[in-house]
Design goal:
Helix content is 31%, strand content 23%. By secondary structure, it is of the alpha/beta class. The strands form three sheets. Strands 1, 2, 3, 4, 6, 8, 10, 13 and 14 form a nine-stranded mixed beta sheet that branches. Strands 5-7-9 form a three-stranded parallel beta sheet. It has a two-stranded antiparallel ribbon with strand order 11-12. The chain is elongated and about 65 Å long.
């Protein structure tokens, strides 16, 4: 580069989901949310909860790009965080150093964040669990990062196969994390009632003894299946 980049580039002005939108999706299984987006929207399976027993959250994305082996942007995101935010940090999938630890999750909790997510590693797992803030990452390592930048806060990032913008709705549980783009939040809310009804109906059938769905039985009895012996 001809010119040295700024240590941090920060976008502060973006629209967050309303309290009503967050309330409408809070506590909804992530599978239902993904179904409401035609089976898509989840981060890749490499992103796992540090504590599966404390993995449920719903909030507004505050993105940051820290780059490999650095967490200055994560610290800056904590400084910029508002109550209800989910700090979503991209480290380009670099796994040789941790970028999140117990002190950062504690500080994020103190700022009112409801979760921290990263595609890098964490350390201080016992402390993270004790802090009580849901945290997701791609692995663990005791190695520590630099905090020199450059990095961004509030700008779009790519994380585990999904584009994430600040202001998107982020919801997580023990099954994983789903990103709901800001412009699709109301559509997802509108589709959930029908999805819940279908899920409840199928649950009731299984509880009553259903072993094979009707459409599978019909398929197996049709000429679309060739029996070879």
């Amino acid at each position: 580069m001809i010119e040295e980049p700024p240590v941090l580039k920060v976008r502060r002005n973006f629209q967050r989901p309303s309290a009503d939108q967050i309330a409408a999706l809070s506590g909804t299984p992530t599978g239902f949310i993904a179904d409401a987006m035609d089976g898509r929207g989840a981060l890749g399976p490499e992103i796992q909860p540090v504590d599966p027993d404390n993995a449920s959250f719903c909030g507004a994305a505050l993105t940051c790009h820290a780059g490999p082996g650095d967490n200055l942007a994560v610290l800056a995101a904590i400084a910029e965080a508002q109550a209800g935010d989910v700090i979503v940090s991209a480290s380009d999938g670099y796994l040789m150093t941790a970028v999140i630890g117990d002190r950062l999750t504690g500080m994020a909790r103190n700022k009112g964040a409801v979760a921290m997510i990263g595609d890098g590693c964490v350390r201080d797992v016992a402390g993270i669990k004790a802090n009580g803030l849901p945290c997701f990452a791609a692995g663990t390592t005791p190695n520590s990062p630099a905090f020199s930048g450059p990095g961004t806060v509030g700008l779009p990032i790519t994380l585990a196969g999904e584009s994430v913008h600040s202001g998107d709705l982020v919801i997580g549980d023990a099954d994983g994390i789903v990103i709901v783009p800001f412009g699709q939040i109301d559509d997802v809310i509108g589709r959930l009632a029908a999805i819940r009804q279908l899920e409840e109906e199928l649950d009731a059938k299984v509880a009553a003894g259903l072993a094979v769905p009707d459409f599978v039985s019909e398929l197996m009895a049709s000429d679309k299946v060739q029996v070879v012996d």
